[in-house]
Amino acid sequence: MSNMLAPWRKYIPFSTQRNRVNPFQAVQTAFDRMLEDFYTDFKGTSGFVNEMEGLMITPSIDITESQDLFKIEVEVPGIGPESLKVTTESHAVTIKGEKTVSHKDKDRNYAVREIAYGAYQRTIPLPESVDIEKAKASFKDGILTIEVPKKASAMEHYKELAIESA
Half-sphere exposure of 13 toward its Cβ, with a 13 Å CA cutoff? Predict the structure, then answer.
């Protein structure tokens, strides 16, 4: 029974003849050129750092739905509630914020800079079943939480069905 498996070879030569062309050579060459261009762009990081400041950033969100409300959690590390603005209109919530660079950080010589700074705006559409007038927002530990209750009429239509065995 154990002889039914094909023998495994550690090394299978791609080409044994010198005059054969490697069909993947063009792909490898293009990939090498792309990587070289990528790293060339990062030379002189001070110019790159200045270009990265002031770009739009987008915070990550989670939206959950329960029987009576929608809960939106927005991850905004490094931003305080004074730098955030939440507005509602019709059936949408708009979040605006700005993460600014400290003045004491302006003259630093960064070797690597991955922390994003800038302004952002994000509008989250919600269904017509929400009662946007009763929405409320809170902030704790870098998380902005927005709760938007559903209209009473929408909750009346909510029903969990029992699953019957056939």
Answer: 5
Please tell me whether residue 138 adopts helix, strand or coil conformation: strand
pTM score, two decimals? 0.58
DSSP per residue, 22-38: PTTHHHHHHHHHHHHHH
Q: Convert the pLDDT of each residue in 2-38 to its tens digit.
A: 556 655 555 555 555 555 667 778 888 888 888 777 7
Render pLDDT for 115-132 as a digit per residue (tens, 0 to 9): 777 888 889 999 988 999
Which residues have a Cβ under 8 Å from the Cβ of 134 and sit 6 or more positions away?
148, 149
Distance (Å, whole) CA 126 – CA 5 = 57
Residue type, 32: D
Question: Running DSSP on this structure, what letter comes out for residue 150?
Answer: B
